[in-house]
Amino acid sequence: MEPHEEPWKRLPLYGAHNVRDLGGYPTLNGGRTQYRRFLRADGLSGLSAWDVRFLQRYGVRAVIDLRDASEVQHMPDVSLGADVMYANIPLLSYNAADIERFERLIAAQEFSMTHVYEAILENYEGVRACFKFMAEAPEGCILFHCAVGKDRTGILAMLLLSLAGVDKWDIVADYMQSWAHLMRDEAFREDWLNEGGNRFREGMTSDPKNVEHALDLLEIEHGSVEDYLLECGVPDEDVASVRQRLLA
Fold first, then answer.
1. Number of CB atoms found within 10 A of residue 147's CB
2. Residue 173 CB neighbours (<10 A)
3. Whether residue 184 has pLDDT greater than 50
4. How far apart (Å, rounded) are the C-alpha atoms in residues 32 and 100?
5. Burial (CB count within 10 angstroms: exposed 0-12, middle 13-18, buried 19+), residue 49
6. Coil, helix or strand for 44?
7. Coil, helix or strand at residue 45
8. Are 89 and 134 contacting, i.e. CB atoms less than 8 angstroms apart?
9. Cα angle vertex 128, ends 124, 91, to 5°?
10. The predicted structure's pLDDT at residue 109
11. What would the pLDDT profile of 48-107 be if each residue is shown by its tens digit?
12. How far is CA 172 from CA 154, 164, 180, 213, 247, in A?
């Protein structure tokens, strides 16, 4: 069996360190999420030619870039091919890589990752556009990513796994893997260890309290992920199509 034919949790790529399959999780009704349907990922700007071939052969047919326009312009994705659908759908209204902005917020004691996650969930237009794209994407695997594959990517992964009926603690465990995978990246590891990294550690970790807060917020304010998506304006048929894609 060729490497790209195997079911992977973390894909063995050279130019991206946090590319993971959402397949293999048990669901509350006794089913499980399927492999090769959705990949969550960090940035694709450093992909090698080998990585591109691997993703093509793995079945990626659509890509959602969740970064803001300035991030995309600064570090554009390596193309996976003309036949791969692509959409840029920002889930935050600002550049999440703007360190000066976060320095100001930290100095004013106004920075909190839970507030960042609340802002993502309040972006009804962005969430609706993501689900429309996923519902209309061609058969095959959909890859979605932001800069490091942790926060914006993490919230979309949380919504997908919740929609599939995956247990809360499996969702939390999936979220927590990002920091360990990112530490394979030498630049990320250096940022973590140096003085600047210490200032931004809350923003660099994948602390379970962040995703737990987002899950609790969904339940308290909306009742369920289905109700949340309907409030975002996602049509019933798109909700059903995306769920079926992950489970069928």
1. 21
2. 13
3. yes
4. 43
5. exposed
6. coil
7. coil
8. no
9. 60
10. 47
11. 999 999 999 999 999 999 999 999 999 999 999 999 999 999 999 765 554 555 555 444
12. 10, 15, 14, 10, 19
For residue 243, the tally of other CB atoms under 10 A from its CB is 18
20-21 and 38-41 beta bridge pairing:
antiparallel
Q: From CA 178, how far away is CA 180, in angstroms rounded? A: 6
CATH tag for 3-238 (out of 3.40.50.11260, 3.90.190.10, 3.30.70.260, 3.40.50.150): 3.90.190.10
Residue 26: φ, ψ to 5°: -70, 150
Tokens representing 125? 């237009």
The residues spanned by each domain of the chain are 3-238
Structure-block tokens of residue 138:
């061609």
Q: What are the backbone dihedrals phi and psi of residue 184, each rounded to the nearest 5 degrees, phi first?
A: -70, -20
Whether 175 and 208 have beta carbons less than 8 Å apart is answered as yes
pTM for the whole structure: 0.91
Nearest to 159 by CA among 125, 119, 131: 131
